[in-house]
Amino acid sequence: MLILKFGGASLADASGFSRCVSWFEKAGTNPCVFVVSALYGVTNHLLELIRFSEESLAGDLQDGLIHLRNRHFDVIKQMDIDTEDLKRELDLEFLDLKSLLESTCVLAEVSPRARDRILSYGERFSSLMVSMYLMGKGVCARRVLGEEVIVTEARFGNAIPMLIETGREARRVIQPLVEEKILPVVAGFTGRTPNGQTTTLGRGGTDLSASILGSALGAKEVWYLKETDGILSADPKLMPKARLIPRLSYSEMAELSYFGAKVIHPIAMHPLKDSGIEARILNFANLNNLGTVVGKVSDPSPAIKAISPIPGIALVTVEGLGMAGTPGMAGRLFSALARERVNVLMISQASSEQNICLVIHRDEAPVAQRALTEEFSREIFSKEIDGIVFRTDVCVLALVGEGMAGTPGIAGKVFSLMGANGINIILIAQGSSEYNISFVIDRQNMEEALKVLHSELCESCQ
């Protein structure tokens, strides 16, 4: 069995739906499950409609609903099948969404539960469109809602899948369809709590939907159909000589996803790693593309597979003589950030214990600054802490590769290259696994640092 995941950009117009048929044909005799995202831009549009509801902007809400409907019906008009049944079914879905949004608009409040329900409609629409298009092309297909097969904890907005329960439901719903040679088209990104409330898996969650179902159904492989030829050694927009990486390990892929490579959801590899199922990142527009294979084993060379820059970050420094030898300071710092759901990307603390530096996403800096200032107001007033400094003129460069583990001199070479080119390193972090070296530099030096490192550590190994 193969799981094929289709992203929103792949379904931006009618030509994308036509390619879905081609990918089904490419799978040959292998039974398939399709997992689809919302059409390109639709989730952002739904977030805008939620804002209109929260602010009771009834007129803007109605205009937004009309625009959203037209967006989908414009794609349907381009389809080379009889679309009357599809239009009728899609209009029923839009009526449900309209009713839900109008109710929340009257209350001027969208609860987390209602928010997830509203956001689920993007994938409801696309899965209906893909399944009915396939049927119009002679493929026996059936839509399956995410709520039917993925069970999650009741954590709205970023739900955690319950793998045992999901495995049971996926086999109950999908396995009989596959045995009857019916192609299931699953609405990604969504799930449900054990008592039936709709949840979402967070942005990019359709990748996670595909890997969860791959694990639950014992798939041979999971194919992620993207807009690139696979995983590259750097962002080709910044580094034209970036090379395709033929093979990565699960750990390398997870590191790259976490540190800015937006091809795959950061935790999508976890279910596959546990099951030993390989993933392929393939170009949706190129059926003959070999892509990148992700599995247990990585190619031994080069030691550094890829370099990922992360520009949108902030560096937070908490410093003061009163921190040294005072138990619980770090605990309070991270607890304060956790209460505001601020994610910490990197951490560094001097052995003197007089300062702690950490890296967060730049857009979370205002919330983090308020939380930390309140938490340490007494220490700041008494001068035990000199202050909390936020810098947003910085970026992170993350170097990823299993070959770094146990290879002497890698870090030394990296830092020598930075020093020789006059680039100052502000903060360094390296995990004990040695799969990743990350460091903070001034943002103005990002492209120069990437160029130097890629030339010396990646291009020379091609």
Return Rg in Å. Answer: 24 Å
Number of strands: 18
pLDDT < 50 stretches: none
Name of the top-level CATH class of the domain at 2-226? Alpha Beta
Explained architecture:
The protein has 462 residues and is α/β, with parallel strands linked by helices. Among the domains are: 2-226, Acetylglutamate kinase-like (Carbamate kinase, 3-Layer(aba) Sandwich); 313-391, VC0802-like, CATH 3.30.2130. The chain is built from 16 helices and 18 strands. The strands form 4 sheets. An 8-stranded mixed sheet has the order 3-4-2-1-7-9-10-8, sandwiched between helices. It has a 4-stranded antiparallel sheet with strand order 11-16-18-17, sandwiched between helices. Strand 13 (344-349) and strand 14 (355-361) form a beta hairpin.
Secondary-structure topology with pairs:
Blueprint: E1 2-6, H1 14-26, E2 32-36, H2 42-54, H3 58-77, H4 84-107, H5 112-119, H6 121-136, E3 141-144, H7 146-149, H8 163-179, E4 183-187, E5 190-192, E6 198-200, H9 205-217, E7 221-226, E8 247-249, H10 250-258, H11 269-275, E9 278-283, E10 292-295, E11 306-310, E12 313-319, H12 329-339, E13 344-349, E14 355-361, H13 365-375, H14 377-381, E15 387-391, E16 394-400, H15 410-420, E17 427-430, E18 436-442, H16 446-457
Parallel strand pairs: 1-2, 1-7, 2-4, 3-4, 7-9, 8-10
Antiparallel strand pairs: 5-6, 9-10, 11-16, 12-14, 12-15, 13-14, 16-18, 17-18
